[in-house]
């Protein structure tokens, strides 16, 4: 009876591995990988057997050493069985030190890997090299990142030595479980995009490890599962030294025998599929779009036929936003071991950079999962008799920190039921096991529930913010509750979301706990236009928002729009209420502006490059204009669209008012305005070299190679000089108690001489739309640059500008080749913000850019200090950075 019980173990797994964070030691050093899972081709002595090949351990004679001399033709290996499919990102090696008795080490090694222990493949790096540099001495460990990562269960480390014929090795592997379970995909071969109609791009799957026959790839994994997602512009790659289009696999419509791309996915076992996520490019102006529809068929076993009734999914095509994106395809909880999906073209090209699956493991009723833990039984009759291996399997603990494995064992392999020789004792034991399992599942579910409540915290805050943002059609307020006109008695304060801590039930208690929160209310009340005076030092004069009388709710308008991400409450402005004397620059006759080209565009306006006739004479002596050398004066003219909303108009006028008072070599200079009639215009200096993001992303680090080949490049000292200039401009804004709120490389412009000037152009919003997070389709927030308190509490201060400065430095030293936290979705970035708030060591920081001096990364880390008061000031940052600039 009991045996007929349906024993279905379901563990929700969401792959989408992030290689930057999937770097957990897998257990060689700490013994989670058991001795019997480490084998070798040979061993010199008992005391140098494979079980001694553990990094940083000194048991036995201190390492694994293969027998005999290592001739080039002889392949010796140390083999590790990880017990489950694993996403392997890093390998660490060491030689034999043995308290100074040993001096054997491998200078190089190769890696072979296998899903099943039968079919072995050789690992190659992205350039096709198989050998990896290992050690130079017997004691220092060397850590090598695997690019691409390996998805495998078995790994062989094969020492290669041309110098010394005796080698010994100690090894650690790093990675995380490959919970996707995908073991291969097949698809038509990726193609090349060719001029003249398109730019050159090679869109093949260059790391695919299966076979490629007749233009069809099968039996392997490759770039679509390497965790690297492509950029918005498919020509730009995240990998150094790689060709245009490297991150994507792409196909041209009409070049295949069908009008769709057919892909098959094979999994390690039967799974219950919830959804598939396909990261697709959508650069429609180059003929690339996400797929228009996809239809997926399912197979319960590899030898079965495809089931009738595929799942169909139609996407909403988007030819407004060219950002690459994840398209989530619901798979209706269908059970299968293999899937076949047909992706239909929506344009000339279709390009994918990553595909992942959300599924739950399924064990079907006629089979039973053996549960073998050391504490249960050693009785042979409980051990799998046929195709199971003899080892304990681990599952990832859903409530532990990632990578920690529980010894709770469930084998993914199913076994046949015991035959009828088995006695009632066996049944009794099984009943006990089932009951234990029920208890364990209950405990797991309970823990998951608790974790969820904790993890929901930042999301709830965001939801509340969202509700507030959308609660009134004309009002966008991102501020803490104490601002009287907006907070009804019914509105719960943000602090109430911390359900588990009674202190947090009471906002006052939270303020006591977090002194900085007590200022957030005033901070929000102190909202400004382009910038907001810092609350902590805001005088009535400087903090002009403070002078605003208590306004009626109906007067409050949104300032989200033309010029920035700034969202705050201000009374509605009219040209009358903002009198001419508020604007300290002159009105320029608009008929003397001659349009040359469009520089940018946003929701409510455009920036044009214009020739300004007679501007030097108009501005008079000492005007901040570059040398003209007899050429016409070029200016950037930001113009409000005729149909802009009142809010956008207010925003525009407010930005003019503030900009007209700013005067610093590293802040964009407002020269004159045209506001006496519509359309409203502001005229600023023209910055020939565009924005810093674009500038850096088109350059490489200076090297012999860039110099020899005339590749546009920048030096470390250029980058430091840029950083100093931005800190100087921000120091100036801070001296006026202005808060920028959207500091990022996209808002820094470069002139002819590469002087940087900070601007805040909402016009860049279209170009950089993926940098902004849209809340319920209304407000947009640059969340990847925002301090935790800005996201969670709506608190913007100079200290939150310092946070954004840290992110801007990070962008500079990655040459803007990557978006901050590029591997996290917007929602994950917000969840991470909650971790910054909780500060329990679970927050994910931006990684140190490879080119960045460690002292500079430390400075960045200080900008991201959880404690607002502990972050440096802009003056401090400027003083710290300035000495590094070569004069
Ligand atoms: N894009 C927006 N503003 C600009 C400016 N002032 N110069 C050059 N490009 C711009």
UniProtKB/TrEMBL annotation:
F5/8 type C domain location = 22-176
* GO-annotated cellular components: plasma membrane
Membrane-topology annotation of the record: Single-pass type I membrane protein
| Protein's UniProt keywords contain DNA-binding | no
Q: Which GO terms describe its molecular function?
A: ATP binding; transmembrane receptor protein tyrosine kinase activity
Tell me what reaction this enzyme catalyses: L-tyrosyl-[protein] + ATP = O-phospho-L-tyrosyl-[protein] + ADP + H(+)
Which residue numbers delimit the Protein kinase domain? 593-885
Q: Keywords for this entry?
A: ATP-binding, Cell membrane, Disulfide bond, Glycoprotein, Kinase, Membrane, Nucleotide-binding, Phosphoprotein, Receptor, Signal, Transferase, Transmembrane, Transmembrane helix, Tyrosine-protein kinase
Q: Name one GO biological process term.
A: collagen-activated tyrosine kinase receptor signaling pathway
Protein localization = Cell membrane
Query: Is Repeat tagged as a keyword?
Result: no
Q: Where are the transmembrane segments?
A: 425-451
Query: Which Pfam families does the UniProt entry name for this protein?
Result: DDR1-2_DS-like (PF21114), F5_F8_type_C (PF00754), PK_Tyr_Ser-Thr (PF07714)
Query: Where is the signal peptide, in residue numbers?
Result: 1-15
Entry EC number(s):
2.7.10.1
| Similarity comment: family membership | Belongs to the protein kinase superfamily. Tyr protein kinase family. Insulin receptor subfamily.
Query: What is this protein's name?
Result: receptor protein-tyrosine kinase
């Amino acid at each position: 009876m009991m045996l007929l019980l349906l024993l279905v173990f379901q563990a929700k797994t969401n792959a989408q591995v992030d290689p930057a964070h999937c770097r957990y030691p897998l257990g060689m050093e700490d013994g989670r990988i058991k001795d019997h899972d480490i084998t070798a081709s040979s061993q010199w002595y008992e005391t140098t057997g494979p079980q001694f090949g553990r990094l940083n351990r000194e048991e036995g004679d201190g390492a694994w050493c293969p027998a005999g001399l290592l001739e080039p033709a002889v392949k010796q290996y140390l083999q590790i069985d990880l017990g489950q499919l694993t996403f392997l990102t890093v390998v660490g090696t060491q030689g034999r030190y043995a308290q100074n008795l040993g001096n054997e080490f491998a200078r190089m090694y190769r890696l072979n890997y296998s899903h099943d222990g039968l079919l072995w493949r050789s690992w190659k790096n992205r350039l096709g090299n198989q050998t990896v540099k290992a050690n130079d001495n017997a004691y220092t460990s060397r850590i090598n990142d695997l690019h691409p990562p390996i998805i495998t269960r078995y790994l062989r480390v094969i020492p290669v030595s041309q110098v010394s014929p005796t080698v010994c090795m100690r090894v650690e592997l790093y990675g995380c479980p490959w919970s996707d379970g995908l073991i291969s995909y097949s698809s038509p071969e990726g193609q090349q995009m060719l001029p003249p109609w398109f730019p050159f791009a090679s869109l093949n799957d260059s790391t695919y490890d299966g076979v490629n026959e007749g233009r069809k790839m099968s039996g392997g994994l490759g770039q679509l599962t390497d965790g690297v997602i492509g950029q918005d512009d498919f020509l730009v790659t995240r990998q150094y030294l790689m060709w245009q289009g490297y991150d994507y696999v792409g196909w041209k419509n009409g070049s295949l025998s069908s009008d769709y791309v057919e892909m098959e996915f094979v999994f390690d076992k039967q799974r219950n599929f919830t959804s598939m996520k396909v990261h697709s490019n959508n650069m429609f102006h180059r003929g690339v779009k996400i797929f228009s529809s996809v239809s997926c068929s399912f197979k319960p076993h590899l030898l079965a036929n495809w089931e009738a009734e595929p799942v169909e999914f139609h996407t909403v095509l988007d030819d407004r936003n060219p950002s690459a994106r994840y398209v989530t395809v619901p798979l209706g909880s269908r059970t299968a071991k293999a899937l076949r999906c047909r992706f239909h073209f929506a344009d000339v090209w279709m390009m994918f950079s990553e595909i992942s699956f959300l599924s739950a493991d399924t064990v079907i009723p006629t089979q039973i999962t053996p549960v073998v833990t050391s504490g249960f039984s050693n009785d042979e009759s409980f051990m799998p008799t046929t195709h199971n291996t003899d080892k304990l399997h681990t599952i990832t603990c859903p409530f532990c920190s990632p990578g920690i494995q529980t010894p709770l064992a469930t084998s993914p392999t199913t076994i046949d039921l015991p035959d009828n020789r088995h006695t009632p004792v066996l049944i009794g034991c099984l009943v006990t096991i089932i009951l234990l399992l029920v208890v364990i599942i209950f405990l797991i579910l309970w823990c998951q529930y608790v974790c969820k409540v904790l993890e929901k915290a930042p999301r709830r805050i965001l939801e509340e913010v969202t509700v507030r943002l959308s609660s009134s059609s004309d009002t966008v307020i991102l501020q803490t509750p104490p601002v009287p006109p907006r907070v009804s008695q019914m509105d719960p304060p943000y602090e109430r979301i911390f359900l588990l801590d009674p202190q947090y039930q009471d906002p006052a208690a939270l303020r006591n706990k977090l002194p900085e929160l007590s200022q957030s209310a005033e901070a929000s009340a102190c909202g400004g236009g382009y910038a907001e005076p810092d609350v902590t030092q805001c005088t009535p004069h400087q903090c002009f928002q403070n002078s605003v009388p208590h306004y009626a709710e109906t007067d409050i308008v949104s300032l989200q729009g033309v010029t920035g991400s700034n969202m705050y409450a201000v009374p509605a402005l009219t040209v009358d209420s903002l009198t001419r004397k508020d604007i300290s620059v002159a009105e320029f006759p608009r008929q003397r502006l001659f349009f040359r080209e469009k520089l940018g565009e946003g929701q409510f306006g455009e920036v044009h490059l214009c020739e300004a006739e007679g501007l030097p004479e108009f501005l008079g002596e000492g005007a901040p204009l570059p040398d003209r050398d007899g050429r016409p004066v070029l200016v950037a003219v930001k113009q409000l669209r005729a149909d802009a909303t009142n809010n956008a108009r207010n925003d525009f006028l407010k930005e003019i008012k503030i900009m007209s008072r700013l005067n610093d070599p590293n802040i964009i200079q407002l020269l004159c305005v045209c506001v006496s009639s519509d359309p409203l215009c502001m005229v600023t200096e023209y910055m020939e070299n565009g924005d810093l993001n674009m500038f850096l992303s088109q350059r490489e680090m200076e090297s012999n190679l860039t110099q020899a080949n005339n590749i546009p490049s920048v030096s470390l000292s250029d980058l430091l000089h840029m950083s100093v200039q931005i800190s100087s401009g921000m120091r100036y804004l801070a001296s006026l108690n202005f808060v920028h709120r959207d500091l990022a490389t996209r808002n820094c412009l470069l002139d002819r001489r590469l002087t940087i000037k900070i601007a805040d152009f909402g016009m860049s919003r279209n170009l950089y739309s993926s940098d902004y997070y849209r809340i319920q389709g209304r407000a947009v927030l640059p969340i990847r640059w925002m301090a935790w308190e800005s996201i969670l509490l709506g608190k913007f201060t100079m200290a939150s500008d310092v946070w954004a400065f840290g992110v801007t430095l990070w962008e500079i030293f990655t040459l803007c080749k990557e978006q901050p936290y590029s591997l996290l979705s917007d929602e994950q970035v917000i969840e991470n913000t909650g971790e910054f708030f909780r500060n329990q060591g679970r927050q994910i920081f931006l990684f140190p850019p490879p080119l960045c001096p460690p002292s500079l990364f430390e400075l960045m880390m200080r900008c991201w200090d959880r404690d607002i008061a502990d972050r440096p000031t802009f003056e401090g940052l400027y003083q710290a950075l300035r000495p590094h600039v070569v004069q």
